[in-house]
Amino acid sequence: MKKNIEKRYYFENIELRKDDAGEDAGIGGYASVFYNGKPESQYDIFDGAVERIDPHAFDSALNRDDVRGLFNHDPNQLLGRNRAGTLKLKIDERGLKYDIDLPDT
Question: Could you give the CA distance from residue 99 to residue 17 in angstroms, rounded to a whole number?
């Protein structure tokens, strides 16, 4: 029996940083936005079903020593890693904020 794999993509306000020479240096933004009671803070999954992210959803992930920032959730496309210091994560009132120093490739 074939299983359906669900993939979701969320892109909102991705920031691209440039270095002094004008080269791409990093990206940042929100990996996830917490539910705040407003419709724009929930994710429509399919008709009649929504996903709402709790502000404590990432508490344990921030305490791990090896969180990875991946392109399209693909482990073969590593962009940054907290253990290497190239991925920084922070929780604020809006959601889970990330900042990745892009590799020089």
Answer: 10
Is 27 a member of any domain?
yes
**Residue 35 Rama label (left phi>0; alpha psi -120 to 50; beta):** beta
11-66 per-position pLDDT tens digit = 556 787 777 777 768 899 988 889 888 887 888 888 888 888 999 999 887 887 78
Two tokens, residue 57: 């959803």
Q: Report the alpha-carbon distance of residue 87 to residue 67 in Å, rounded.
A: 8
Q: How many domains would you assign to the chain?
A: 1
Residue 42: domain span:
15-101
Q: Is residue 9 part of a domain?
A: no
- The answer to the question of residue 69 being in a domain is yes
pLDDT at res. 55: 92
pLDDT of residue 47: 81
How many other CB atoms are found less than 10 A from the CB of residue 2? Answer: 4
Give the burial class of 103: count Cβ atoms within 10 A of its Cβ; 0-12 exposed, 13-18 middle, 19 or more buried. Answer: exposed
